[in-house]
Amino acid sequence: SQQGEEDPQALSIQEGENATMNCSYKTSINNLQWYRQNSGRGLVHLILIRSNEREKHSGRLRVTLDTSKKSSSLLITASRAADTASYFCAHDDSGNTGKLIFGQGTTLQVKP
Amino acid sequence: GAVVSQHPSRVICKSGTSVKIECRSLDFQATTMFWYRQFPKKSLMLMATSNEGSKATYEQGVEKDKFLINHASLTLSTLTVTSAHPEDSSFYICSARRSVGEQFFGPGTRLTVL
């Protein structure tokens, strides 16, 4: 399967706690992106990190990328109930086709 | 951010009928659009790459005669599920590529085949 691995598959935390999701992939990449999806809805782009970057921040989000380990992590700090959603990583196929290969996703539940 | 729309958002049809789903980039031109399928509680699986003015490129295992893709203009791609059956019921999501690394997703279409 081309799809990358994400862990955990499901995560349940209390509001205010931090949530960390991990993603691994198999091929070389140009960039990796994280998306959020509320149940039954489309995808919302969160952040893009390029292969020459190691860390990137956006508000309460922090993404890291380790190309030597072919892995990335998404950290959501000070979580809120509204952060409850599924989170997917996706990377390009390095062939500049624009295709995105998605990870299997992490379902995050933030309890108020 | 750029806006991509899909129509319809939800469709229910009888087995054997064909269903057309539209994907539009509203404020930019997209030479490339992508169609994904998502099963409940699963990730997105790329079905095909839609290129304006040329034939779509299908991923392995996707029947091109079953899922007809037409990218007639720089802002519109359509996916037609022909002779739909219950196993085709799924959430179909399109995306449009604005530039390298920039891809925007539509809100999805929920297809239910009875």
Outline the structure in words.
The complex is a heterodimer of chains A (112) and B (114). In chain A, the strands form two sheets. In chain A, strands 2, 4, 5, 9, 10 and 11 form a six-stranded mixed beta sheet that branches. Chain A has a five-stranded antiparallel beta sheet with strand order 1-3-8-7-6, with no helix packed on it. By secondary structure, chain A is mostly beta strands. In chain A, strand 9 and strand 10 (100-102) form a beta hairpin. Chain A has no helices and eleven strands. The model of chain A has no long low-confidence stretch (mean pLDDT 91). In chain B, a hairpin with a 5-residue loop joins strand 4 (32-38) and strand 5. Chain B is mostly beta strands. In chain B, strands 2, 4, 5, 6, 9, 10 and 11 form a seven-stranded mixed beta sheet that branches. A four-stranded antiparallel beta sheet of chain B has the order 1-3-8-7, with no helix packed on it. The A-B interface holds A 3, 30-31, 35, 40-45, 48, 50, 88, 90, 92, 96-105, 107 and B 1, 6, 32, 34, 41-46, 49, 91, 93, 95, 97, 100-101, 103-108, 110.
Q: What tags apply to this protein structure?
A:
heterodimer, A: mainly beta, six-stranded mixed β-sheet, five-stranded antiparallel β-sheet, 11 strands, B: 114 residues, mainly beta, seven-stranded mixed β-sheet, four-stranded antiparallel β-sheet, globular
Please summarize what this structure is.
The complex is a heterodimer of chains A (112) and B (114). Chain A is mainly beta and 112 residues long. Chain A is 0% helix and 55% strand.
Q: What proportion of the residues of chain A is helical, as a percent range?
A: under 10%
- What oligomeric state is this? heterodimer
DSSP E strands of chain A, number: 11
Terminal residue distance of chain A: 37 Å
Number of strands of chain B: 11
Biggest chain contact: A-B, 26 and 24 residues
- Biggest beta sheet attributes of chain A: 6 strands, mixed
The value of Rg of chain B in angstroms is 13 Å
Mean pLDDT of chain B: 92
Major pleated sheet of chain B:
7 strands, mixed
